[in-house]
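Fig. S4 source data, part A: sequence.
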Amino acid sequence: MSRARCEVIPGPGSVARRRDSLLWASAQTPESVWDTLVACLGLGARATASAAVLQGLAETMLPSLDADTAFAVLVSDGTTGFLLRHGAVDLLVDDEPVTTGPVSSVIPGVSVLLGSPQAVRSAAEQAPAYRHDLDGGAVPGGAVRWTAVTRADGLSAAVPALPPSVPTEPPVPSEPPVSSPGPVAVEPVTSDTGAEPTSDPEQTEFHPPPDPDAPPSSGGFRANAGVLVFEDGATISLAGDVVLGRRPDNHELVVSGQAQPVVINDPDHVLSGAHAAIRFHGDEVVVVDLDSLNGTHVASPEAREWTRLTPGAPFLMQDGFRMLLGWTVLTYRR
C-alpha cells in the first residue's frame, strides 16, 4: 500500500476505500451493486488484471441500471488503476477531468477526486482538509479524495506508471467461487437501525442499544459444540457464546460475562470492533450480526452467492456453513 491520505467529502452517497482503491456510489445505487463494487476493491493488488473483471461488469450489469444509479470504482495499486463508472459521477486526476469510460485506464498521479458532480466541484475549490481521513471501510459521503504523501525529496510516494490500454481478454464469470471473499454477489437486505456510522478508521462499528426481545444466551460453557475454521486452517473451539471482531472486549456480551471475545486480525480496518456473535439456543448454534459497518454474510456449502444478514437477526448455522466478516472467511464445523 502506498503512503496516501483519503479525505471523505460531505454529501449524499457512500464512499469506501480498501488500500488505494476507491469507490463512490449514490444513495440510489442498489445494495447488490454496491456490494459487488466493494468486492472489486479487493482486486487492487492485481490492478492490471482487474480490467477484465470491470469490463465484464460493464457489459452485464450496466445495461440494467436506471439513470438515477451513479457510481465510480477505481481499482488501483497506488501507481496505476482501472475505472468503472456509471451515471452522474465526476473524476479528477491531478485536477484534470477524466471523461473516458465506462471502463478506462487511469494513472492515479498525486491526487484523485471522485464522487457526485456537486461534491467534486465543491472539493476542487478547497485545499484538502483530512478532517475525515478514511483508512479503510465504508462511510457516508458525497465524494472521496486520495492524495499521495510527498517524501522529503519532493517525489510522490506513489510513482505513476501508465498501462498500455484496457486488456481485451474475455471477462471472468460473474459468479465467483464462494471460497474466495471477492468479488461476490450479495443479496440485498433492507434494515433500518437508526445508527449513525463514523468515518474515524479507529471507530468503524455501530453501538446499538440492547434488544430486550433478544433470545437468552447460553449462560454457560459446554464441550464439543463445534469449531470455526479459518482459511489458513486455524480453528476456534466453541464452548459457549463468542463475540468476533477487531476489538470485541468492550461489547456488552463480553463485559457481562455472557460471551468470550475472539480478536480477528484486521490490518485493513474492514471489521467492526464487535462485528458478529456466535450464540447458542439450546443445541442450536446461530450467528448474529452486531450492526457491523460492512455486514456479516453467510453461505451454505453448495451456495454460489453470499447472503447478507439483517443486523440483530439470528441465523441458524449448520455443518459446513460459511461466514464472511469483512475479508475473513470462517467455516462452521460441528
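Fig. S4 source data, part B ends here. The two ends are 38 Å apart (CA to CA).
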